[in-house]
Amino acid sequence: MAPTDLARVDFTELVPEPVPFLGQAAYIQLEFFESLARSVATAPTLTSKEGLSRAAGVALRKHHAFIAELRRLGVEPVDVMAPFAPAADRFRQASAGADWYELLLGIHVTSGMLDDYFARLAGGLPGEIAARVRGILAEDASSEVLHDELFAAIEAQPGLADRLALWGRSLVGDTLLIARSALRASDSADRAGDVEPVFTELIAAHTRRMDALGLTA
Questions:
Q1: Is-contact 2 114, C-beta < 8 A?
Q2: How confident is the model at residue 191 (pLDDT cuts 50, 70, 90)?
Q3: CA trace torsion 101, 55, 53, 66 (10° rounding)
Q4: Average pLDDT of the segment spanning 153-164
Q5: Which residues contact 105 (CB under 8 A, 6 or more apart)?
Q6: pLDDT over 60 (residue 12)
Q7: How far is CA 19 from the centre of its chain?
Q8: Which CATH number is associated with domain 12-212?
Q9: What DSSP character marks residue 126?
Q10: Cβ distance 125 to 18 under 8 Å?
Q11: What is the mean pLDDT of residues 162-187?
Q12: 105: DSSP letter
């Protein structure tokens, strides 16, 4: 399906109210920051630590930007994020992997898919919030760093590609579950067909990320 067809999907009736949307987005960025910080702490070289630390800084800036949006709406960010913490914590643990390379691929796959999805879903938010959310999510310092680290490791270590390809495939289902949870529960079941083209595009983008690493999605 062409991207122009996908763009016709109207999320206006599916997007939750701005406050829970921003709360979930803020907590997810905090989770990405924690995962990236872990990757920095366990990185094998100083060069890797430096690049990944920059990516972690971007995730933290996104988190703080969403917090600022919540405060702009007059709510306490911690209270809004709290309901999303258990599922997001489980998701982070499930995508951490067995070693540093699986951790990096987990971040690469999940942050890529969810940033794309939340940016698209933001189109249903009211007024200027939509533009600001898209602007927040547009900043990306992690994908290139993660790609370069993973590509170099795959080139240097025979057998790593097969293991990472399997790991990447296992991440898709849980990531799509988190994506679906951002929709209104009452609407998402009735209008699942409206949303499926977007999930198709998310999976297509995931496939391109995996292909760029020489991995089979």
A1: no
A2: low
A3: -120
A4: 95
A5: 97, 146, 150, 164, 167, 168, 171
A6: no
A7: 19
A8: 1.20.1260.10
A9: -
A10: yes
A11: 83
A12: H
